[in-house]
DNA sequence: AAGGTAGGCAACCGCCACACG
DNA sequence: TCGTGTGGCGGTTGCCTACCT
């Protein structure tokens, strides 16, 4: 609803700037100022995007390392796409959420330039409501209808995917999957798949839906039979 | 025009896992 | 092996803005 305009961001930054003046607080919180962004970017350029606590101090920021990391990953990092989530991206989010639950970082890994925070926000503010509404209207057929857009009608159905992957649980379990599944404790955490393998995107290009089919056909093709 | 409300987003919080000494 | 520090993640909160009455 309320798009974040440059003006609104600036205003938030002004508020953050005011907060900075409050020297009683050792660690600054709240909105980041342009100056802070600049300092952080310079520090990361010099020292790399690691050891966030060190970066925070090297940059002369009264921020905790976590805050710096978050700011970098969600806002300052290069190649970040902002706003305008396409239909294709939305569809992918829905499908991945069906598979993975609230594991936003994994979902974000499938969407180049998107952050887990952005996807989480998008889900919470757009998709979850729409889905719950559709669930009321259509019952169990909801997901199938939502993902049946023109460009991907031929692909696997998420419900079936979930069943297949659930079936895979009995024979394909790794430490990576258990580790990832242990986080969040979402509704799909019982689906244990080889996450390292499943989410190895190093050889892939931009957004596409082939990986689902690829995965199902290759390593786990037997589940389709 | 003014106040109330809901939506959207950025950022914080708390927990957990891992690395390292 | 244990304790501590750090990073990563999902959940939640707070602020701002557009819309509604």
UniProtKB/TrEMBL annotation:
Residues 24-76, 77-127 form the Myb-like domain. The keyword Cell inner membrane does not apply. GO terms for molecular function: transcription cis-regulatory region binding. The keyword Transcription does not apply. GO terms for cellular component: nucleus. Keywords: DNA-binding, Nucleus, Repeat. Coiled coil: none annotated. One of its GO terms (biological process) is cell differentiation. Residues 1-32, 165-187 are annotated as: Disordered. Its main location: nucleus. Residues 24-80, 81-131 form the HTH myb-type domain. Residues 7-18 have a biased composition (Basic and acidic residues). It holds the Pfam family Myb_DNA-binding. InterPro entries: Homeodomain-like_sf, Myb_dom, Myb_TF_plants, SANT/Myb. It is found in: Nucleus. Residues 167-187 have a biased composition (Low complexity). SUPFAM superfamilies: Homeodomain-like. This is Transcription factor WER-like. It comes from Pyrus ussuriensis x Pyrus communis. The lineage of its organism: Eukaryota, Viridiplantae, Streptophyta, Embryophyta, Tracheophyta.
């Amino acid at each position: 609803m309320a798009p974040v305009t440059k003006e609104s961001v600036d205003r938030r930054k002004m508020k953050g700037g005011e907060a900075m003046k409050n020297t009683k607080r050792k660690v600054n919180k709240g909105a980041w100022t342009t100056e802070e962004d600049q300092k952080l970017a310079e520090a990361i350029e010099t020292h790399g995007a690691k050891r966030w606590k060190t970066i925070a101090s090297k940059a002369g920021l009264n921020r905790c390392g976590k805050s710096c990391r978050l700011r970098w990953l969600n806002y300052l990092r290069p190649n970040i796409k902002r706003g305008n989530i396409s239909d294709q991206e939305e569809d992918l989010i829905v499908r991945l959420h069906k598979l993975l639950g609230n594991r936003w970082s994994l979902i974000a890994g499938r969407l180049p330039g998107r952050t887990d925070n952005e996807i989480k926000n998008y889900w919470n503010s757009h998709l979850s409501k729409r889905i719950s509404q559709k669930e009321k209207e259509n019952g169990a057929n909801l997901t199938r209808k939502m993902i049946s857009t023109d460009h991907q009608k031929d692909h696997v159905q998420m419900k079936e995917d979930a069943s297949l992957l659930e079936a895979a649980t009995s024979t394909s379990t790794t430490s990576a999957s258990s580790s990832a599944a242990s986080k969040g404790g979402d509704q799909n955490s019982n689906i244990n798949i080889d996450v390292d393998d499943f989410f190895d995107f190093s050889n892939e290009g931009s957004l596409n839906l082939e990986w689902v089919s690829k995965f199902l056909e290759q390593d786990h093709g037997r589940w389709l039979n």
